[in-house]
Amino acid sequence: MFSEYKELMTRLKATDPQFAELCTQHDALDQQIHDIEAHTEVSTYEHLEDLKKEKLLVKDKVYAQLRKVGAN
Asked: Are 31 and 40 a contacting pair, CB within 8 Å?
């Protein structure tokens, strides 16, 4: 996720608990989606779509933080 911000992400994860939590949340959603798509976890189509939407919202929040901090 956002390879162009790799160094900044590493720094923020270590210094900003809220940012670290967003990244953890994104990774957990990503894993859950992967498990459903790999058929190792059972889910409905609707639930999978909800998870994807939630993941996208979290990703948008991560990106907004990166842009905000990167602009300073």
From this structure: no
Cα separation, 46 vs 15, whole angstroms: 36
2: which residues sit within 8 A by CB, 6+ positions away? 9, 62, 63, 66
Alpha helices in 1-72 (DSSP H): 6-15, 17-37, 45-71
CB atoms within 10 A of CB 61: 16
- pLDDT tens track for 22-68: 999 999 999 999 999 999 989 999 999 999 999 999 999 999 999 99
Predicted structure pTM score: 0.89
